[in-house]
Amino acid sequence: MGTRPTPGLQRTTSAGYRLPTTGRPASVSPAARGGPAAGRGPAGGGQAPREAQGVQRDQLWRELVEAEGRGRRRWAENWSFLKDYDPMGNRKEPEKLPDSVPLFSDTLPNSTNQVVGSRVDTPLGRTLIRMDFSFTEGVRKKKLEDELQPA
């Protein structure tokens, strides 16, 4: 059986927490009720217009990017020396990059845009096409016999 609130007294839990007098449960935080920008709404306490929500999201995004940059700079100051050593503590030799890389490939075909094309014209590609053709033979459309052709 429920208890009715006594006028003039606030309801509390057994642990001493005050319960809200509205119909909302106490376990839901204000941020969860109104979304991520609930605490940053206008002074009237109502729902912020769409433009204000976009501005808030943009501000949150800028803060996130700035915090990420700060973290990256802090890592570079404190821990960047680790990138020069392997897990055993031995100094790593930097990998030397090639002087030039050819634009065309000897093993893969090139398209007219000079980007890598498909691999269908290789022996493996021809074998896969032949296997696909033989495995799908039963589900392909077939020409009807003469007696079944429409007149």
Automatic annotation (TrEMBL):
Compositional bias of kind Polar residues: 107-116
Chain segments carrying region Disordered: 1-57, 84-118
Residue ranges, compositional bias (Basic and acidic residues): 84-98
Pfam families: LLC1
Bias type Gly residues, positions: 36-47
Single GO cellular component term: cilium
PANTHER family recorded: CHROMOSOME 20 ORF85 FAMILY MEMBER, RIKEN CDNA 2410004P03 GENE
Protein name: Ciliary microtubule inner protein 5
